[in-house]
Every structure is written in structure tokens, then in C-alpha cells.
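User: My instructor asked us to take a sequence, write out its structure as C-alpha cells, and then describe one feature of it. I'm not sure where to start. Here is the sequence I was given:
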Amino acid sequence: MDQHPTTFGTLVKEPTAFIPIGMSLTALTIVLGFLVANGVVHQADEGTEAHLWQLLMVGQLPVLLFFAFKWLPRAPRQTFYVLALQAGAALASIAPVLFLHL
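Assistant: Let's start with the prediction itself. The C-alpha cells for your sequence are:
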């Protein structure tokens, strides 16, 4: 077990913490890029952007679960802060899709 105290700053630098956050922000970038390029367009068939968004959002779940199982017993408060940050990034990516029915 670690000799040093775990802080939010050190924990968020763990790959299992920042990779899912990066995936959510990448998914948000894809949605915003699509909206800037095309506007609010309802397509009959999902395009490449939709498939990439879905892969990014679902693909981060195993990494998040591993992060939670590894760090919750060691540093529960800091882990919850990182998970809250991740939830905020995920919700930022999901919101335009839900509200604009993309």
C-alpha cells in the first residue's frame, strides 16, 4: 500500500482516472464539432460521429469500474471527487445528444 497520502491531484493523474475523463471530453468534442459543421440535423441513419460517440461513452465503463474497485478502499473521498468529475464530463457529453435528440 502507498506510504504517501493520496490527494485528488495525485489520484486524477492516474491513467484509470484521466483516460475516462478524456474519453468523455473527446465524445463531447465530437458532438460539438458535428453541431458546428451540420447544425441540428436528424438523420435517418446514424453517422460515423454517432458511432464514435457511442464507443467512447461505453468504452470508458470498464476503465471506470477498475478505477473505482482499486481506489475506493484506499482513498474513498478523493475517489468520489474523481468520479464526480467524470460524471460531469459524461453528462456534458450526453446533454446535447438528449436535449437536441441527435
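For the description part of your assignment, you could build on this observation: The chain has a mean pLDDT of 91. Try explaining in your own words what that tells you about the chain.
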